[in-house]
């Protein structure tokens, strides 16, 4: 069994598609398929269930992937430790987040104070951020809801209130708070299902005794525009609306009395991770300053 076989398997497991995995690895699909077949023969077990053009990890594959991820994670730890001993540690940090707004204010401040550190940042679903943490593909995950687990450490950086956001012409716009059931018949604007926050808002409405009357599903960058066009109301974390640097807003935030929902913003990393100096500086800065500097 060779590391190259394991890397091919890891990428195939991530993409769930041999064609995409072969493209990412810059090899031919037949070569990838043959490598995976040889690996399965050596293990005496199939690792994937074939579903048309796609593949899906079976129980054996999922168990094997957890160990393979650990192998590559420990190799990366070893590389970082040797680099530290020899004074050649990288000053680059990889970070994935469920919403780039979660970095507003604080990332700029961090980079101003650490000019020699480079950040590689991507935005993805919470599920994919968790997978990237488990595989060691990224150093840190910044997510809502916060990501934790047996092999993942999470530090809660901020607890944020979810509010009802309405246009200033709305019948309840002059109120400070509201019982959510009072707007059960209103048109709702929501994030689409690619956002984890969508399930949270659906659950909040269900706990208030109704299914939201959803008229528009949009991406995060458009939801404020739709609200200002008076196309409906929305449930949103305060940080998406309470942004004074963007100028005067024509939207009103109402505290939800019943239920009183909140979400947690968390920074996560692998439990056994060996931190470079740059990664230590990043982790310490975010955990100590997030609540103060997050804009």
UniProtKB/TrEMBL annotation:
Keyword Cell wall biogenesis/degradation recorded: no
UniProt cross-references to PROSITE patterns, sorted A to Z: HTH_LYSR (PS50931)
Cellular component terms per the entry's GO annotation: cytosol
GO molecular function: DNA binding; DNA-binding transcription factor activity
Residue ranges occupied by any HTH lysR-type domain in the UniProt entry: 1-58
Keywords tagged on the record: DNA-binding, Transcription, Transcription regulation
Entry-linked InterPro entries: HTH-type_LysR_regulators, LysR_HTH_N, LysR_subst-bd, WH-like_DNA-bd_sf, WH_DNA-bd_sf
Manganese among keywords: no
Entry similarity comment: Belongs to the LysR transcriptional regulatory family.
Protein name, as recorded: DNA-binding transcriptional regulator, LysR family
Organism expressing this protein natively: Anaerocolumna jejuensis DSM 15929
């Amino acid at each position: 069994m060779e590391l190259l076989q394991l890397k091919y398997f890891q990428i195939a497991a991530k993409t769930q598609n041999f064609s995409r995995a072969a493209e990412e690895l810059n090899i031919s699909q037949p070569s990838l398929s043959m490598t995976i077949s040889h690996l399965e023969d050596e293990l005496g077990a199939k690792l994937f269930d074939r579903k048309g053009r796609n593949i899906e990890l079976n129980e054996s594959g999922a168990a094997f992937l957890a160990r393979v991820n650990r192998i590559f994670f420990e190799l990366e730890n070893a590389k970082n430790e040797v680099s530290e001993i020899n004074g050649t540690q990288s000053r680059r940090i990889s970070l994935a987040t469920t919403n780039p707004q979660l970095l507003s204010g604080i990332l700029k401040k961090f980079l101003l104070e650490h000019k020699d550190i480079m950040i590689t940042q991507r935005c993805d679903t919470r599920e994919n951020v968790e997978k990237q943490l488990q595989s060691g593909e990224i150093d840190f995950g910044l997510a809502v809801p916060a990501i934790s687990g047996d092999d993942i450490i999470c530090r809660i950086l901020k607890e944020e209130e979810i509010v009802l956001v309405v246009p200033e012409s709305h019948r309840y716009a002059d109120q400070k708070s509201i019982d959510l059931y009072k707007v059960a018949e209103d048109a709702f604007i929501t994030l689409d299902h690619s956002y984890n926050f969508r399930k949270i808002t659906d659950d909040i409405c269900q706990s208030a005794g109704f299914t939201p009357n959803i008229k528009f599903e949009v991406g995060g960058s458009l939801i404020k525009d739709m609200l200002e066009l008076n196309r409906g109301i929305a449930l949103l974390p305060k940080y998406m609306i309470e942004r004074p640097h963007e100028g005067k807003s024509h939207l009103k935030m109402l505290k939800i009395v019943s239920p009183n929902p909140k979400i947690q913003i968390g920074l996560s990393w692998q439990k056994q991770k060996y931190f470079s100096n740059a990664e230590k500086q990043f982790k310490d800065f975010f955990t100590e300053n997030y609540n103060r500097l997050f804009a």
